[in-house]
Predict the 3D structure of the following.
Amino acid sequence: MAEIFVSTVNPEDFQSFELPEDDRLEGDLKGKVHWLRQTDSPGAALLVGIFAGEPSAFRYRYEMNETIHILEGEVEIEIDGEAVTLGPGSVASFPKGAESVWRIKAPLRELFVLSG
């Protein structure tokens, strides 16, 4: 039988998201993650969740392929000198191994899917 993953997004269910001190560029990230799915089998990892973060800037390396859908807020993401600004409704996908700089401009909520 197929497995169905269901979750209610309750602020109390979010876990703290920490970055190494060296990756913080401006402000205090104060990020949180709510996990919907965490499946890690050999060669087929799939992680799905919601990230919430306050205005800040930080370096972020994509450890897996990552697709995001912005639910609210605004973020500018720069990779290799090229920046994109994403807001509610924006969807973007980034390759494993990419080095980025995130600048959260307004309180952010995004659905993310990590695969690899």
